[in-house]
Every structure is written in C-alpha cells, then in structure tokens.
TrEMBL record, chain A:
Residues 45-407 form the Leucine-binding protein domain. This is ABC-type branched-subunit amino acid transport system substrate-binding protein. The lineage of its organism: Bacteria, Pseudomonadati, Pseudomonadota, Alphaproteobacteria, Rhodospirillales. Coiled coil: none annotated. GO terms for biological process: amino acid transport. InterPro entries: BCAA_transport, Leu-bd, Peripla_BP_I, TAT_signal. It comes from Limibacillus halophilus.
UniProtKB/TrEMBL annotation, chain B:
It holds the Pfam family BPD_transp_2. The keyword Transmembrane applies. This is ABC-type branched-subunit amino acid transport system permease subunit. One of its GO terms (cellular component) is plasma membrane. Its main location: membrane. It is a multi-pass membrane protein. The lineage of its organism: Bacteria, Pseudomonadati, Pseudomonadota, Alphaproteobacteria, Rhodospirillales. It comes from the Bacteria. It comes from Limibacillus halophilus.
TrEMBL record, chain C:
GO terms for biological process: amino acid transport. InterPro entries: ABC_transp_permease, BCAA_transport_permease. It comes from Limibacillus halophilus. The lineage of its organism: Bacteria, Pseudomonadati, Pseudomonadota, Alphaproteobacteria, Rhodospirillales. This is Branched-subunit amino acid ABC-type transport system permease component. Pfam families: BPD_transp_2. GO terms for molecular function: transmembrane transporter activity. Belongs to the binding-protein-dependent transport system permease family. LivHM subfamily. Keywords: Amino-acid transport, Cell membrane, Membrane, Transmembrane, Transmembrane helix, Transport. Its main location: membrane. Signal peptide: none annotated.
Length: 449, 392, 342
C-alpha cells in the first residue's frame, strides 16, 4: 500500500500491477500527479457544468437556465454581441474564453431531486472534468449540490434558490448565491404592502410544508408584523397538493383580510388560481378589500396562473422590463437569439457564469480557493441589479430587490409583471449572524486533492 | 425461468459475476459509465434489486413500498456519520439493522393480505414515510434539503480536526472518495475505493441470494408463489417464511440505502417516494424477475439511462454527427435530441415497452433465448434432420 | 358548522375527480384484469384535449407592427385570434366556452386513443403477469407524457372556466344558512354535477343495455361468457374505450380547477389505485364510494382544528385510511372474494 499516494486523487503508480502492462505506453502519468486542485484544466479548454432541471415540474425553468448558460458561454468565448459583458463593471474578461482557455460545457438533469442532482453533478466532476457546477431551481437541490461541491472541491454558483438556509444555516465556502432570499423578499415587500394596504391588516398564511416554505413564512410574517399587521393563522400545505380547496375555504370566514401564499411553482399556480376561484379577491372583510400576496414571483409562474395574477404583489430578483443599460443589453442579446425575453432564472444563471469566469480571470487561476478569494466581498455593477456586493461572510449577493405586481393589461404573453418599486439594497441588508441565518459555518475553501 | 441449477453451473455463474463486477471500471469505461459515481450506483442499486427479487422473484409478492427501507437505511447511516464516526462500517451495520426492524413492522402488518392488497399496503406505508419525512419529521430527516453532515456534528468516536473542511466517509482510514486514475487506450479508468467497497458487498449480496434461491427456504418461498392454498392445506404456516423473506429483502434495501450514504453522505426524502419504489420494481422486471442476474442488469440499464442519456446535449450530439454534411447532421441532431438530454425519459419508456412486449421474461429471457438458439444450432449441426422451433 | 359544510363540499368535489378516475380504472381492472398504470396518463390526455381546443380556437393571425418594437429590437407581433376575425362576437364566446366545448372533442378522441391502446398493446397482455402489465403500461404512460411535454412544455397552462360559470354561488342560503356564510365556486358545483351524470350514465349503461349485461357477466366470469359464443374481445375493446373516455372527460372538466401540465397523470395515478383498492377490486360502486369517502376525509383532515391535534395528518390521511380499511375489510369496502388476490 505504500505506493499509493495519500492524496485523494492519487495515481496508482504500478499500472502493470493490475495486469494492464500491455497498455503501458498510453498510461497517463501526468494528470493526477501534477494537479494541484480538483479538475485543474490542462488542455486548451475549461469545462463548466450546467446542472438544471430538465424533467419534472421545473423543466421549463431549467430550459431557460440552459439557454442563458449557452448564451454566456458564447459571450465568454467572444461570439455574439457580448451581452452584459459589455456593461459589467469588471473588465477582466476579454472574450477569449477564461484565462485563455475556451469555455466548453456539459449538462445534466437535476430532476429537482437532491439525489439526482448530486448524481448528475458528480458525473460532471468525475467523468467530464467540470471545474465548477452551476444551476438548479430549488433550494433543496441547491443545498445538496453546494454540500457536494464543498466536499469534492469545486465551486458551486447557485441558480434559483430562495431559502434563507442556502447562505444561512447551510452556507458553504465553495458556494455562492446571486439570487435574493426569503428575508429580502419580506424586507422589500413589507413597506410596499403597507403603503398599498395600510398597517391594520390581518394576514393568513398558506405555506408549502417544507424548509423553503418555512423560511419564507417566517421572513414575511416577521416583516409584516413589524408593520403592525396581525398574523391570524399559519397553515402548512403538503407539497404538490394539487387541489387546495380544503385549505382555502377556512380562509373565507377566518376574519383575515390578506392571504399570503408561501408557495412556489405549480403549488403557487394552483393555490392562487383556486383562491381567486373561491372569490377571495371580490370579498370585503373588515371593511377592506381582501388581498392576496405572493412573496416570490417568477414570470413562468405568472404565465401558469394566467389572468389570476392581475394586481397581485410579489417580489422578484430581476425582470426583463428593467430599463438600465445592462438589463437591456441582456434582453436584447437573449431575445435576438431565442425570440422571447429571458426569465429571472435565466438572468441569474447568466450572471453566475459571467461572475465565475470573471473571478477566475481576476484571480489568475481556476483554483477554487483563488476564486473564493476573488469573489468574497467583490463589488460590481452592470449585471442588471445596480451596484452589487458578494458578501464574504456568507457568500450572499446584496443588491436592489424588485417589488412587482401582476399586470392588468399585458401587451404580450411575456409582459405579465410590472415593476412597482426597486427597493434599495440598504433596506434589505441584514447582519450575517441574523437569527434567521444563524447556525451556519462557511468552513474553509476546499480545492480538493 | 430456465436456469441451470447444478452446483457447477452456479460456481461458474458466481465466478463470472465476481469477475464482471471487479472489472467493472474497465468494462464500462467504453460506454462512458466508468466513473465512480455511476459505478457505485450500479453496485448499490444492484444490491437493492437483488434484495427485492428475493421477495418478488421467489414469492410473487409485489411490494410497492420498498424504497421506504432504502430511505430509512440512508437516514440511519447519515445519523451514524453525524453522531458516531465517519467510518462506514458502523453506518452500514446500523442501516441494515434499522431497515430490518422497520421492515419487520411493516411486513408483519402488510403480509396479512396478498395480491394487490399487499401491494397497496406496502405502498401506503412508504408514502406515509415519505410525506412525513418531507414535512413533519424534519427535525430527524431535515426535510426537503436532505440530511447532510456538517462541521458542527458531534461524531463522538472521531478525533476532531480543525482544518475547516468537511470530513469524508472512510473505511478505517481509507477514504471512500479516493480514486486511482489511469489511462487505457485513451480512456480514463477510475478505480474508486467506494466502488470496491460496494462491489464486495454486491458480490456478498449476490452470493447470499444465490444460496437462498437454492436452499429449502427458497423452495418453500417458490411453493408459496405457485400455490399458496395448497401450502396452507398441508397445515404449514407460511407467515414466518414470508416475514423472513420480507425482512431479508428489507435489509438488502437498508444496506443499499446505507451504501448510498456511505459513498455520498446525504439522505433525502425523495428516496422513499413511490416513484423510487416503482423504480426497483421496474429494474427487477426489466432484467427478469426470479432470475439471479436479471435484477442487476435491470438496475444497470435504468441508472445508465438516467445518468448518461440525460447528459447528451445538442453540443455533444453535434459532435457525434459532425462527420456528416451539415444539413443532415443538424436534422439528425434534432431528431436524436428528442430521445436524450431532456427527453431521456422517453427513451426509458420505450425501452420498457419494447423489452416487456418482445421479451416477457425480461432481459434474461433474451439471454436464455440466445443461449438456446446457440445450443440448438450446435445440435442442429449434429442432427440436421430435426427441425428446431424457436423458443416462443 | 358552515366550516364543516364547506369541507363536505370540498370533499365531494375532490371525491368527484377521484371517483371518475377510479371508475374507469376499476372497469379495466375488473373486466380485463389489467393493471393499467397508464390510466393517469389518460386523465392527463383528456385535460390536454381542453388545452388543444383552447389553443386551436385562439390561434392567432400574427401581424408585425410597423411602429412598435420588442425590447430586443425586433418588430412587435400583434396577435388576433382567427375565431374572432371570422366569427366576431360568436368567436369570442367560443373561446370563452372552450372547456365545455372540449367535451365534444374529447369523447371521440379519447375513444380512439382507448381503442388503439387496447388493440395495439393491452390485448397482448391479458394473460401476462400483473408485473409485466405494470411495466408496459408504465412505459406507455412515460411515453405519452413525454410527447405532451415536447409539444406543450412543462409549465402549467391555465384554462379558465367560462365567464358565466366563474362566479360564486351562495350555497348556504339555499340550505337554510345565513346568507353569505357558505359560498362556493359555481364551476366546482358544475364539476360535481357533471361527475354525477357521468357516473350515472356508466351505471345505467351497464345495468340496462345488453352490451352492459355482457360486460357485467364478463366481469363476473370471463371464461364462461367466452364459452357462450360471445365475442368477448370486441366488447372488451369497447370497455377500454369507455374507461378512456370517462378518464378523459374527468380531465377536461378538471382543467379550470387545476391548470394542467404533462405530469398531471402521475400525480393522480397512485391515488386512484388506492381509491380502487379501498373500494374493493372489481366493484364499480365501491370505487365511487371510496372516491367520495377519501375526498371528504382528506378535506376534514386538513382542517386546522384537526391538524393541531395530529400534526401532519393531512399528509398521510389517504394512506392511513387505506391501511385501516384493508386491515378491517380484507377485500376493501365492497370487494368480492377471489378478485386479484394472487
């Protein structure tokens, strides 16, 4: 056993010992030996791993993420119009790939299941030599894959994940999140709700019964209670309940005058559609119009819920109707390639790919520890949300948050949300040890090997 | 299920199996399946399917809730990593014991019914486990996110290291994620410690299953399948036999669950969902229920489709067809992309339909037909007057 | 009290869907002896009949605007539905009523799908073990849903109920409660009545027609009926067709309640098997009874008062009831001896 190197990815020196002597000329001896970190790129290319849901309920979201990644790879390699690379405040990227290496990518299907997502990520890392993994469309998957990346020593650039835990309790040194989170949703929404609905309201929560739903419920309830709202009830609903009527009818006569739907994806589409069907929006309670709030919105969800979203408030990470230079450049580039505007998931994934590449370029290495150092406390602008900080203490992005409302008269099938307010970053910033995010430990960066 | 059952044939089968498993990293590399994660999955789901086959293949009792045992096995193993030690041995033992106890309880209740009623009872228990693990039992299971190891875990038997990195699962110091890589004919071969740990247990599991199939106990279980009433009329109480078979197969599932956690320390609730239970049923039937090797083959095909077909994107397909003229290549890429990448489940569905329609006994029937055809042709050379009819 | 009445209504509504799916499933189970894992897919296909009809009716004429452009610089597309261009006012009424109209389309379409499925695939599996039936129908279900996904995407597609059926009805006032205390969506009552009619029609068909009699005889003893010189196979094809139509119609009318997506069938599959088995294999009335029972129990279990006593009960109630029923009554509520026990 003494011939085995003790490093994790050592090399069996005596290939002949395995009866492979006949193949001796082709035995590589350089690969693992000289590597100083997991999957150090040796050739003229560098491989990114795009791990998105391709089957299951979020397949359309995943398809949009993949489109954004393909666009980002084009731009990194100097093809296309460059998109947000032109507006990005850091000018390290030159359009010749990353550190002179052409970017190639591999894809995988997370199925929105932790197991499948990890299996798929491990394939990219073990078989395809991916230097980083990015993507995903749920917090469960993000936390699972982030844990894996920490263990094997590659960087994880989270896709769509909104739970506080991703950069709270489950934060990891090798993982970064560009997307906003439940706390920020609450902090951004509450003042807008107050100015529209007043400070004397009784709220009823319907919450998806799993970790994301709970953090969302906790955040929104805390934010609205701080305004003087009263929380009448918090009811947990099973994931994928389909028909929510049995949870909605108790709302009718509960005395509440606001219903907050802490649901996402299909659950949100169904619960909102059914809440409207039960006439909640036509109701008068305590002399006020009954209102529904959906804290986390996405355009695809709004599409699924159809006309039911009209006038309903929520928050979102980014929207294609934003008028700043960077957003417009991205929408132009994406729209010209695919014929429709990008979703917020696409924007986040595009940004993550660019941010990672830029960090490598600035660090001068693909070594995860170098990348972590380059990203921590990195301040930038020109990626669509105004000045942004990647905070070093928890690897969470801090930027303006959008409060949106379902549009009354959409001009096209994509024009479903209108931006009501851009909440400045200062209003949604919290301390890294805020109670809702406590209990986590970044640990130290892991470069593998 | 025509199988040779002489001890000599069994020995050959076992040796061939051992050789195939141990050479897995070499044999599977040309198919793009020779990387540690998938090799481990092959071995683990092979164990799961072998165990399922002991119940279903022998007794005909179709459990639709076997994933629950896999799930509790995983949770037990991860808790062992969190509380005791990162050593995989206690984790795997703990997983098997917990799954065994859990299956004893569920088996005791479910086996009061037979046929589809038994299937629905097992399904109901598994779905209850899944739903509760996802929500109410979150303090134990960590719900949606899945149970993972963290820096703050006590791990009373391990010495504390303070380098800030997560500890890795190991077998008395041999890290499960340790891989020795080498190149052969342009392919990278991965010899992974975790895989060989699973592989040895797969071989043991296969050997035990073979012994059970050939034992009087196995005969008794087969008798249950062929005519349960007659068994009861002879005054024999079959319940203890059935319960033992159910528990053995539950412990196999627990072992598989423990190994999943040992090679990748995470336990998620989806492992217990009905689709996961359905998957092992499909693996077993696809390969050939009641055969020894069949379930392992079925497990391999389904995991291969899930992991490799799903990874083919347009870029890779374009690479396949780039020797063709552009227009033809892009047409082929377009057509092929319906079946791989995000369409991988379509391919899997078609495989299910084709195999069960044309090979009622699963893949093993195909193997047997080829063997018979081969034997008959040899015999036909000797006795060319006999007109051999193909097996139907 | 009004809360309980509302939950009973919810239960009946859920129960209608469960009963309709289980009815078709148990027809196939009971008559043909086939475990049909593609039954949920038939429900989903029905729902997509409604989507397809709606899409057809609202097909657009696309003209490019000369003045307006999109955010990415191409001319804005202005869409006007053909139906409105051709039929004017009537056209928009047609679009509004697309869900009920889809029934007319779904009946022939689902019948054809059912017959093709039976003739092309299922009939080869009558004598095969249940496990192989499961494998082949599960494969078929995956193939069907993947085709729908390739065509319509994975996102749910909203199907609003017709405007005139969208409102609320004061149900409480009709049965003597204070006005406004028990209001219920009109469409859900429509769905309940619709289910009632379909279930009644299926029972009447089996009870009062010669064909129905043969089918019932076939359910009781298939071989004897075959020996009597009746071409049972042709009748069985029809049974499969009817089951497909029932599942499909259940899907069509359910779309305003649940926006359909390609995965809809799988979500109902396990549940419908539980309903069938709880009702008792081969018993049509058992399936209907169990459907309503489970629907109502599920609604009650979701009430806060009950969830506070037993946390998580709404997550598992269906399965818990299944276990209890099967332990207390070995063959389900109304099952007969000897059906599907081996």
């Amino acid at each position: 056993m003494t011939t085995f190197s003790t490093s994790r990815r050592g090399l069996l020196k005596g290939g002949a010992a395995l009866g492979l002597g006949f193949a001796a000329p082709t035995i590589l001896t350089s690969k693992a030996f000289a590597a100083s970190y997991t999957n150090e790129p040796k050739g003229s290319t560098v491989t990114f791993g795009f791990n998105v849901p391709q089957t299951g309920a979020y397949a359309d979201e995943g398809a949009d993420e993949l489109r954004a990644y393909e666009l980002a790879v084009e731009h990194l390699n100097g093809e296309g119009d460059g998109g947000m690379m032109g507006t990005f405040s850091s000018k390290a990227l030159k359009g010749n790939g990353v550190l002179g290496k052409k970017v190639v990518y591999v894809t995988g299907d997370t199925q929105t299941k932790s197991d499948a997502a990890r299996a798929s990520a491990r394939r990219m890392i073990e078989a395809d030599g991916a230097i980083m993994v990015t993507g995903g469309s749920s917090s469960g998957v993000a936390v699972a894959v982030q844990g894996l990346c920490q263990e094997v020593g590659v960087i994880f650039m989270a896709g769509l994940t909104h739970s506080n835990d991703t950069t709270g309790k489950d934060r990891k040194a090798n993982g970064f999140r560009h997307f906003f989170n439940a706390y920020m949703s609450g902090a951004a929404l509450a003042p807008v709700l107050k100015s529209n609905y007043g400070s004397d309201r009784k709220a009823y929560h319907l919450t998806a019964d799993y970790t994301w739903g709970w953090t969302q419920e906790e955040s929104i309830a805390a934010a609205t209670e701080a305004l003087g709202w009263e929380t009448v009830n918090k009811v947990r609903t099973p994931l994928g309940a389909g028909d929510f009527s049995q949870y909605i009818t108790p709302v009718l006569n509960s005395g509440a005058d606001v219903l907050i739907l802490n649901h996402y994806g299909r659950d949100m589409v169904n619960s909102l559609t059914q809440a409207v069907q039960f006439g909640l929006r036509d109701k008068q309670v305590n002399g006020k119009n009954f209102e529904i709030v959906v804290p986390l919105y996405s355009r695809l969800m709004a599409q699924g819920a159809g006309k039911n979203v009209n006038g309903i408030f929520g928050s979102t990470n980014w929207h294609w109707s934003l008028q700043d230079e960077a957003s417009q450049a991205f929408v132009k580039s994406f729209g010209q390639k695919y014929g429709f505007p990008p979703s917020q998931a696409a924007h986040t994934c595009y940004s993550q790919a660019i941010l990672y590449a830029d960090a490598c370029e600035r660090a001068g290495t693909f070594n995860p520890c170098g990348v972590v150092e380059a990203l921590e406390d990195f301040e930038f602008d020109g990626l669509g949300n105004g000045p942004t900080l990647y905070r070093g203490a928890d690897h969470q992005c801090f930027k303006d948050v959008l409060v949106v409302k379902g549009k009354e008269n959409p001009s096209s099938q994509f024009d479903l949300l209108e931006v009501v307010e851009v909440v400045p970053v200062a209003n949604v910033t919290y301390a890294p040890d805020h109670p809702m995010f406590a209990g986590g430990d970044l640990g130290s960066c892991n470069a593998g090997v | 299920m025509i199988e040779k059952t002489s001890p000599r044939a069994d020995r050959i089968l076992l040796l061939a199996f051992v050789a195939a498993v141990l050479l897995g990293p070499i044999l599977l590399a040309p198919f793009g399946a020779g990387y540690p994660d998938l090799l481990q999955k092959f071995a683990i789901f092979g164990i799961f399917a072998i165990g399922f086959n002991i119940l279903f293949g022998l007794t005909g009792y179709l459990s639709f809730g076997h994933a629950a045992f896999l799930g509790v096995g995983s949770y037990a193993a991860v808790w062992s990593f969190k509380l005791l030690s990162m050593n995989v041995v206690p984790a795997v033992i703990f997983a098997v014991i917990v799954a065994g106890l859990f299956s004893a309880v569920i088996g005791y209740i479910s086996l009061r019914r037979s046929g589809i009623y038994f299937s629905i009872l097992t399904l109901a228990f598994a779905q209850m486990s899944y739903n509760l693990a996802y929500s109410v039992l979150t303090p134990i299971t960590n719900g949606e996110t899945g149970l993972q190891i963290t820096l703050g875990d006590p791990r009373v038997l391990d010495s504390v290291s303070n380098d800030g990195g997560l500890p890795v699962t190991n077998l008395f110091g041999l890290a499960m994620n340790q891989t020795w890589e080498t190149a052969l004919l342009g392919m990278t071969l991965h010899f992974n410690a975790g895989f060989y740990f699973c592989a040895l247990l797969l071989i043991a599991a296969f050997y035990i299953s073979m012994r059970i199939f050939r034992s009087p106990f196995g005969m008794m279980l087969r008798a249950v399948k062929s005519n349960q009433n007659r068994m009861s009329y002879t005054g024999l109480n079959i319940r203890p036999y059935m319960l033992s078979a159910f528990m053995i197969s539950g412990m196999y599932a627990g072992l598989a669950g423990g190994l999943l956690a040992a090679t990748d320390p995470l336990a998620g609730a989806e492992r217990m969902q009905w689709t996961a239970s359905g998957e092992v049923v499909l693996m077993t039937i696809l390969g050939g229920a009641g055969t020894l090797i069949g379930p392992v083959l079925g497990a391999g095909i389904i995991k291969y489709a899930e992991n490799v077909f799903s990874s083919f994107n347009d870029q890779i397909l374009a690479g396949f067809f780039d020797f063709l003229p552009d227009s033809l290549a892009s047409a082929l890429v377009w057509a092929a992309s319906a079946f791989v990448g995000d369409g991988w489940q379509l391919t899997l569905g078609i495989i299910f339909m084709v195999i069960v329609t044309f090979l009622p006994g699963g893949l093993m029937e195909g193997v047997n037909r080829i063997r018979k055809w081969h034997e008959q042709r040899q015999r036909g050379n000797d006795l060319s007057s006999c007109s051999a009819k193909p097996a139907e | 009290m009004d809360a309980i009445l509302l939950q009973i209504l919810n239960g009946f509504d859920k129960g209608s869907a469960y009963a309709l799916i289980a009815l078709g499933l148990t027809l196939i189970f009971g008559t043909l002896g086939v475990v049909n894992f593609a039954h949920g897919a038939l429900f989903m296909l029905g729902a997509f009949c409604a989507v397809a009809v709606n899409k057809l009716l609202s097909l657009d004429i696309v003209t490019l605007s000369e003045t307006q452009t999109t955010a990415w610089g191409t001319p804005l597309e202005i869409r006007t539905p053909y139906a409105e261009v051709w039929f004017g006012e009537i056209g928009s009424v047609l679009v509004d009523y697309s869900v009920p109209l889809s029934i007319l389309v779904a009946i022939p379409v689902m019948l054809i799908i059912g017959v093709v499925m039976e003739r092309g695939l299922i009939k080869h599996f009558y004598k095969r073990p249940h496990a192989e039936q499961i494998l082949v129908t599960f494969g078929l279900a995956i193939v069907l849903q993947e085709i729908i996904k390739a065509w319509f995407g994975a996102n749910p597609i909203p199907q609003p109920a017709p405007g005139s059926l969208r409102g609320m009805i004061d149900f409480g006032a009709a049965v003597g409660f204070e006005a406004g205390s028990v209001v219920y969506p009109l469409w859900r009552l429509v769905y309940f009545l619709f289910a009632f009619v379909i279930i009644g029609a299926v029972f009447a068909f089996l009870q009062f027609t010669t064909l129905g009699m043969v089918i019932r005889a076939g359910m009781a003893d298939r071989e004897t009926v075959g020996l009597l010189g009746i071409d049972i196979d042709k009748r069985f094809t029809l049974v499969f067709g009817i089951a497909a139509v029932v599942a499909g119609l259940a899907g069509v009318m359910y779309t305003p309640i649940l926006s359909p997506d390609y995965h809809l069938g799988m979500d109902f599959l396990v549940l419908s098997f539980v309903v069938v088995v709880v009702g008792g294999m081969g018993s049509l009335s058992g399936a209907v009874l169990a459907g309503f029972l489970l629907g109502i129990l599920q609604s009650f279990a979701s009430m806060n008062e009950i969830k506070q006593v037993i946390p998580g009960i709404d997550q598992i109630i269906i399965y818990l009831v299944a276990v209890v029923v099967l332990l207390a009554r070995p063959r389900g509520l109304l099952g007969r001896k000897g059906v599907m026990e081996s």
